[in-house]
Amino acid sequence: MTTSPTVRRRRIARELRQLREDAGMTLDVAARQLDMSKSNLSRIENAQIGVRPRDVRAALALYEVTGPDAEVLIEIARDARQRGWWQSYSDVLPEWFEFYVGLEAEATTLRTYEAEAVPGLLQTEAYAREVFRRTAGEEGLERKVAARLRRQEVLRRESPVELSVVLNEAVLRRPVGGPAVMADQLHHMTTAARSPNVTIQVLPFGAGGHPAMSAPYVILNFPDAADASVVYLDNLTMGLALEEAGHVRGYSLVHEELCRMALDPADSVARLEETARHFA
User: Fold this and answer.
1) For the chain, what is the largest distance between any 2 Cα atoms, rounded to a whole number of angstroms?
2) Which end of the chain is more exposed for a tag (fewer CB within 10 A), N or C?
3) Is 1's pLDDT higher than 60?
4) Among candidates 250, 251, 216, 11, which has minimal Cα distance to 120?
């Protein structure tokens, strides 16, 4: 499994914040002791910027954390300084989406609802190209497609991510790229749905109103219990990571309800095949 520097940076940020609070220090006091600005320490603790291992060592000394516990955190800080493959696509991936890809790279489970388009992890090359063309124009098009296809390796690695997808039926009916591209995309999803780590369920029009009508989402879980689950939301220009347990629990309940309302996996595959024949 990929060791993601994004996940490590998030872990060290949370640990440093908790240790400071346990030591009874305010941001102001800790920042002065560490000879850095309050804003810089705040950004470190919120995983907005990275932190050097030597600065982690200084913070741990300040918070009176020593021995093996300190060395583990310093090693995490070193891992957080590594580069993820997605950073080589920084010319076409906005920073807020690089953060998501870094989380996705180490996730063990992904649960998602999509209302308008096939999720990126299940897109064919031709479908992805048309989506980018329609939403972002021609600039950097092939690099964006390449990055999207590279992300899909999480489905094929030695310990693949467990993917649970609920798709609005509209995703199946909208001929993105034309009938031939859409037929191929539907066949691709049919094949993917037969993989043991991928579950696709179609939410039919007949299901009526549902609890995710206002917000597609992705819920990410990680292999280490120390890395809390995340709900990720995005649009054309920004992304938002919700990390509070209440948010994750709420979206998890929504996903469970959507799975109950949607066609079961076998009937969903049948719907995919039926729709593919329509476009063929």
Assistant:
1) 68
2) C
3) no
4) 216
What residue type is assigned to position 140 of the chain?
A: G
**Measured on CA atoms in the order 123, 128, 130, 136, is the torsion positive or negative?**
positive
What is the average per-residue pLDDT within 237-255?
96
Q: Which of 195, 237, 234, 202 is nearest to 218 (CA)?
A: 234
- CA distances (Å), origin 57, targets 22, 74, 75: 17, 7, 10
Angstrom distance (rounded) from CA 177 to CA 131? 8
pLDDT at position 3 is 74
Whose CA is closest to 113, among 207, 216, 189, 192? 216
Contact 37, 130 (CB under 8 A): no
Grade residue 226 by pLDDT with cuts at 50, 70 and 90: confident
State how far the Cα of 78 lies from the Cα of 63, in Å rounded to an integer.
19
3-state secondary structure of 110: strand
Helix (H, G, I), strand (E, B) or coil at 37: coil
Could you tell me the strand order of the sheet in which 217-221 lies?
198-203, 162-168, 109-114, 217-221, 230-234, 239-242
